[in-house]
Protein 1
Amino acid sequence: MQQLDNQEILMKLKSQKQFWDIKKKIKQGFNDQQKIGVNDIQKFAQSCEIEDQLIKLISHILKKSKKRETLKEDQIEFLNTSKIKWTELLFKNLDIVHQKTKNQEEDDTNTDSKLYIYDEKNLLAFLQTFKQQQSNTLYQNVQFQSNKILNINIPLKSSQSILDKYQYLLLQEELSDEKINKIRKQIENEHLDIELEKIAQTFVPNGERCLLYLKYFEFDHQDTVLQQHFAKLQKECLNQLFYDELLEIDGHEISEDTFYFVFQEQILTCLKCFIRDRTIKENIRIQLQSGIKKEHAEFQLPITGFFPFKNISKYVAPLCYLSTKIHIIYALFKEFFCRYFCFLHSISSESNSILSLCMQIEEIVSTRSPKLFHHLKIIGCDTLKLIIHQLVYCFIGDMDPPHILTIYDQIIGHDSLEILVILCVGFLNKYKSKLLLAKNQENVQQIFSELREDRFQELVQYAYKQ
Amino acid sequence: MSEYFRKYIKKEHYQNHYSNLKFKTSFRNCILEALKRRQWKEVEGDDWDIMWAEKEWIHEVMDHTHLQPNQKINHFRNHYELTRKDLMIKNLKRYKKNLEREGKNEEANNYNFFPQTFHLPSEYPIFCEEFKRQSQNGESKTPWIMKPIGKSQGKGIFIFNKLQSISQWKNTLRFNQEAQQAEAYIVQKYIADPLLIGGKKFDMRIYLLCTSYQPLTLYLYRTGFARFTHHRYDNEDISNTYVHLTNVAIQKTSDNYDEKLGGKWNIQTLKLFLMTKFGQEKVAETFYNIQMLMIRSLQAVQKIIINDKHCFELYGFDILLDATLKPWLLEVNASPSMTSNTPIDFELKCGLLDDVFTIIDLEKVLTGNEEQIGGFDLVCRGTPIKLPINSTFTTYLGSFNNRQQQLKKIAKSTAIRLAQTYQETQTKPIDNGSKNQKDEKEKQQRSTSKGPQTIQNGINNKLGMQPKQNSIIKRNGTNLPALGTIQNKNTVKRQPLQNAVQLQPPQIQALNSNKKINPSEEQILTVNQKLQQLTQDNKLSTFQPYKQQSQYNDVMGMSNRNIQRDEE
């Protein structure tokens, strides 16, 4: 951690609006007095909570100055080696994809729209291999938990604590216009992370969401910086990369979604810039792929340090509902990915990682709806296989954009992806009765291919239904 | 006739049974389909009840023919006063001036939804003066747009910001002696900062039905389109391309969306986007402004259009939003395109037309007091209709289009009312002695015949509206616009029916006795069951026009599913 000296803290303090507000307040407090002693100020500050505010402000500055290191090594050695294996696997897939595109160039008539390096099913399948390996070494005698797909010894939060954490969502009340306006003002004037998080946890009015996100990511005064950065990346896009082709193919699914087809070009532009952005490697919270470097130029990882995967466009799409400016959309996407979504693709024991989330879901479903859990197991369509798509892609494409943004709010509000666990559990509970009647995988697929309407609040309610 | 009406209303209860109705049209798209779906007969000659004619027919034939009292036609005689670009502007300008003269400045100021416009060649000198004045004031950056008056679909449109380009245009006209009748143009200040979505420009197509100009009676359709333009102006080569920078070149990957989704959003999706981006209040205001814009443009020509009880007109308004969400009127179409490019589009337009025909009411089954028929909401009858103050809606434009449920509801209440009327005329033969009595009865009947509708409206207020309000609050509460509207579906569709039935026991009896059902059975249930049975029996037979075309299966599936949901 980088240490700040007092001078620097003062400098940073002065750049905060709240600091000047506090100063003004103190001045007002001593309006008519001629001489003001340090003690007087101290007393005054204590009496009207100014001191608390100052402490908060300073700790906020210190926290901000601390740069988050990218997680490279996991505390569990086994996962580190797995990550290397995963990366090797992806390189192999890349080879295949590369070969396919080459073939396609020769044969123009047959364009395969399913070209991608990996998708969520590949990822889950890879995670599944852990079980056998570990049970060989650690759990030789433990057979009783074998019903779960994933059963790895990593530190997990108790599922009850997650359920408790989000229980307040059930009690969401309707807010009056007055209160909504109050929240609006609050968003405009607030700068502290904690306060912004609190707002995001409870309620973000439509129309203010973009500002809240920008403030939370500290982009609110950086419009020109963002614009320049984006323009620079756009220039770089003129040099074609192999990955561009994959991204273009990836956009097809988005182009078939009523809500997002309008944004297809913007999404593609964002992604092309994204794989060329050098700053991602240092900003991303966890390293997604690690290990070998190959020499052949075409077969290297993109500059971001990880492969673009199938449906990466989905993460950008809902953000198009926040701003009409593409550089803002890009900045938000980048931040969301580097802070949160990267964990959905990471082989790690972190509490946000796909591994932990999956295990949480299995845990909750198997304890709270054991019947469903076993039924799914018997018909050969495991719980996780059912919801992995929704989990990895944050329900994007399954819910209307405003609902997705509510999920985003919750992610920011708690600085965590655990809300997805709640929603996945709710999702399963919602279709529980139908799923219990399903006799095979086809039945299950049929249930989900039907027209359905999932909503945030509804899924939360289902999650807590016994 | 909408399938629900056919299902619920008994043949002998019709004043004018649908199988007796004849239509004539030269169109071969959704219009023909919608007419056929009502099970009307197509005819060639002059013996028709409704004619969906082309505009030209009106000009050529209508002045020389005498229409029978029951005949209906889809244009007003001089509709061009509103639908020709130059005349529309002229009429709007004149109406605005009149308002100013009458001292109604506030209302006059509301007529600010059309850009500064001049007629060419007649107003060329004034335009040049204005152009030079603006150039001197440094406003020269806003370009102007030239539109030929007679053409549509963007033909002949070009944009310029130098007088030179227009003098060139003038010269070619002069040079071309054959075209002495210099083609008339209007020149309009270009709306320079349109709202862009996904980097694309769009305009909205909204449908307004006018059934009468005296009193001005307007119905607004809940669904319309936002049409994203990338090819619209592409064909014209314009020297100053910066205007068109907004039209991002089409990527090769985006080729397929035109086929599948038609490059369109429906208004509901647009509203969802705008609400997420700009917040509820601003969007509510915008949509209200759009509704008022449409009413105002018709008010401007109300005294000019020759009112005719034979005529009705479905207008397609083209509206553009600028970056501040202010709506601008681009033009009004008298015969909006009824050709569809996707199955969903097809269903939507057929539904729209079906609702138009229901409102025209050739079968004479409605009371005329209905506030909502299918996807149409009454927005003006003499004066603009204001929604209750406590309503969170300012307009139904862009709100959930519950036409299926609404039609079902209205068909049921109509069936009950007609059954009662029929029974009373049957059981009480005309008797001189009791004529007065009968008149009185009829009066009562009329008031009760409004009953279902008023009750329905009442329910709309109590139950229908309430959930809407709740849902809106809920939207506020959870910030999820889609949530409310869909929840609404469930609440609206069941409660009003049961209540309507509960509130009308005598009518149920009437209906029951008609259907010869043992009255000792539980009445509420039997009616519902009976109706359900009827619906289920007819469900498939009513929706079959595309059976053979597999590509329509999606839509079909959807519509069937919707009905099933209703049934549940």
Protein 2
Amino acid sequence: MQFMLLFSRQGKLRLQKWYVPLSDKEKKKITRELVQTVLARKPKMCCFLEWRDLKIVYKRYASLYFCCAIEDQDNELITLEIIHRYVELLDKYFGSVCELDIIFNFEKAYFILDEFLLGGEAQETSKKNVLKAIEQADLLQEASVCLHAGFPPSVLSESFLCSLDIAGVFRRVKLD
Amino acid sequence: MPAVSKGDGMRGLAVFISDIRNCKSKEAEVKRINKELANIRSKFKGDKSLDGYSKRKYVCKLLFIFLLGHDIDFGHMEAVNLLSSNKYTEKQIGYLFISVLVNSNSDLIRLINNAIKNDLSSRYPVFMKLALHCIANVGSREMAEAFVQEIPRILVAGDTMDSVKQSAALCLLRLHRTSPDLVTMGELTSRVVHLLNDQHLGVVTAATSLIIAMAQKNPEELKVSIPLAVGRLGRIVIPAASDLQDYAYYFVPAPWLSVKLLRLLQCYPPPEDDSVRSRLAECLESILNKAQEPPKSKKVQHSNAKYAVLFEAISLIIHYDSDPGLLVRACNQLGQFLQHRETNLRYLALESMCTLASSEFSHEAVKTHIETVISALKTERDVSVRQRAVDLLYAMCDRSNAKQIVAELLDYLETADYSIREEIVLKVAVIAEKYAVDYAWYVDTILNLIRIAGDHVSEEVWYRVIQIVISREEVQGYAAKTVFEALQAPACHENLVKVGGYILGEFGNLIAGDPRSSPLVQFNLLHSKFHLCSVPTRALLLSTYIKFINLFPEIKVTIQDVLRSSSQIRNSDVELQQRAVEYLRLSCVANTDVLATVLEEMPPFLERESSILSKLKKRKGPGLLPEQEDSPKDKNTGVNGTVESASLSPLSADLLGLSSTSSQSSSSSAPRGSLLVDIFADNQSPVPEAAAAPVATENFSKFVCKNSGVLFENQMLQIGLKSEFRQNLGRLHVFYGNKTSMQFLDFSPSVVCHDVNVHAKSVDPVVNGGAQLQQMFNIECISDFQEAPSLNIQFRYGGTLQNIGFKLPVTLNKFFQPTEMSSQEFFQRWKQLSIPQQEVQKIFKAKNPMDMDVTKAKIAGFGVALLDQVDPNPSNFVGAGIIHTKTTQVGCLMRLEPNTQAQMYRLTLRTSRDSVSQQLCELLSDQF
């Protein structure tokens, strides 16, 4: 896999992961082009398309598009399921994930992705094992956060996040 | 997991993010960000040292700002501080920042590498993993240099945790991709490969990706992975009820790993070991069988994962291209998918079938789905699926269905999406040319292309139709008539005006007899379009007009008036003005003879590969082209003799060399046809019927530069030859084919020779009707020679004694051994051979079209090594070799200088022996 992009229906980039070295300028150009291309497609169209010399595999979950660029010899269907597994992981971790979780906890989204995919290839495909690794890390965090910040983590609850969401864009990612 | 346990609440960060989200405009957002940047900068610069939490919060804010698309040029140092901390949370954010915002600041890199080094040797696996993730995310050369020794050891060490091994494997993969020269496993290779047997499926999954990359780089060394991969695959896909626990995905056992293992196997040819091969066959059968079983779940994830493995298995089957049974099964399976309700599967089936179409075993099976594919073209709602359908139609096209496919594509072109029109045009043009049986159809097709999608017809396409019309006499009249009719349309595309102008300028005379298309009518028709056209087209039309003056003297005055009009002769465009002035002057001063010479009909074009094909290849990888016709292993070609054998060569993909009517065509294209057969007959098996060239006499000189083909043929007998030479020894296999239905009796070939030793194996004196007899000759070259051995054959056919004699193609150059040498060496030796007798030079006229690739092939076939970049002039050919005879060895240097303008060659040979120079020059100069 060469890169993975998450963006909203409004075209806002929510997460980007590049597995090939590219300049920032190129990354922006690719993102712009691709977001446009994918958003222009209709719902029932197929999830694959050719783009430059790459194959794009994308899927929409609620208001979020998950979009991967793979090489010619790579397998489209299994990439589609990579996306799905990542969504499952986010869902399990955040407890019914929505776009806002990813916005406010973008660093978590990156950490989970790193546990699942590394260098563009599946590192650990077992859902249980990935979540176990993240949980472990969180336990380490809990300890240090409470020590350093001086307030309990429960302050940052889901309802707190909702109260911050003035724009009202609060959609859950649907798993089908 | 409840949301509350998400760990670190960084309230400041959440507030900042929500502020940004509330910004009503881009300006407000930028303002808020600038405010925050100033704040962070002052915090970082402030003399009060920040605690870890604040540093983490600010670094996170910077990261967020960067991910919004703003530039960040500070904070790296703070991030490095964080990742050097021994608190996990700080480390994690520090690494994340560095992974996303890599900076090539060398001091920084040193610090980062130091921290990574510490973490790699940490006793906490979580720290090791963070470090490995960072290396894998950054993947820079500096990191590769620093850690390429360390990581393989972590990967194979017995006490490394499984999850760390997984990170280490993929970290190495990333470094392998970015700095392949640095990553060498050395003696650890075998232990890495044996990770395929690891108990932990996660480790196997990660390691397989690495092993694939290693196998692509060092196939030989990684060969041991084949049986391991097959074994592993078998344990996943074959058991009826395998329990892989977490590694089953929607009831599909380890789909990711299965796909990767199948990918790994695609780095290799089919396994040589019988037991491995049959085990793999079982796996593939099992995967194909499972596709037919009822689904274990209605979820799309189940079928996607199942079919992901299936498609990868089909890729492997296509890659092997050796088992017709599996190929046809694969094709049938894909055929079912063509009508599946899932768009994704239809798309993939079309894509996969394109590659199946290029296999000789499944090409026919693919063709049976033509109707489905055509209906996909008409009914699919997604343009990317329709695009795949176009590709597949192109891939499955051959002589039998070309007309239908072209008709369908033309039909589709009328409504096709603009984004794919040009490609369809190119494809239709290539198919129409490649499989044209009659040229009228070809001309009609191209004119249709221009009519339907004129804007998308690139120059290559209309250049090509003109080249072909000019080179094929039989279609010229038809073409003139057709373009004339097409030009009658009130609004026709400018490309049509170009084609029409050019063709009428050349061949308008062929239809001028008809009063409806008299010279004046033709001229007025073209001129009525003139003012609507762009400058280049007008320039072309002006040339057509001057050609008309030559073709039709009766309308000279009319045309001169047009040329003289101020809109032409004073045109503001320099090119048009110059043409008008010059053509007018030419028509006034030149007499008819001069005009006829200057404006003579264009000679046939000498060109090999269709420029359209090369354009299409440029647009798409070569994989999408229907190669099956070009591949030398195609065995279905014998029937049409020369025609098909010519079409075997990729060079003859154009019509010029590929016509069943080549004998009637214009004189200059006739020798081309046979020339193609000559050069590429080497691809053919020597069995005579495979190369049933229409040779009625002996072909001695053709065999100077090649070693197999048809040597002799008449109504009764066909003699094929295959020969091989090594140093001063040679072996000839001669095949005598009885073309009659009666026996040849007392069949006795005998060899006469003076200069070389020939030992003939004895043969059976009877050759049955329709049968073939093979004879072997051993040859030894004693010293350099001129006269080739001759073969006399006597036999009785129906009571009469037949006598046939001809020379065996054993020539001095057969005993060449090619010698590679540098430019310096070559010229040094060239100077050493400076005695006048040692050099023989000959200047001669080209008998065949002067084509660089053909010449190269001939020189290589002659036996010398073709030396590139020796001659300062790149169009010259320079070669070197050693002639081996029993008594001596003779070094030879040669140089061939083509002069395409004069259609002449100069050939120079220098060898240490004058008779050799003489003889080689004679032999080679006869070849061009």
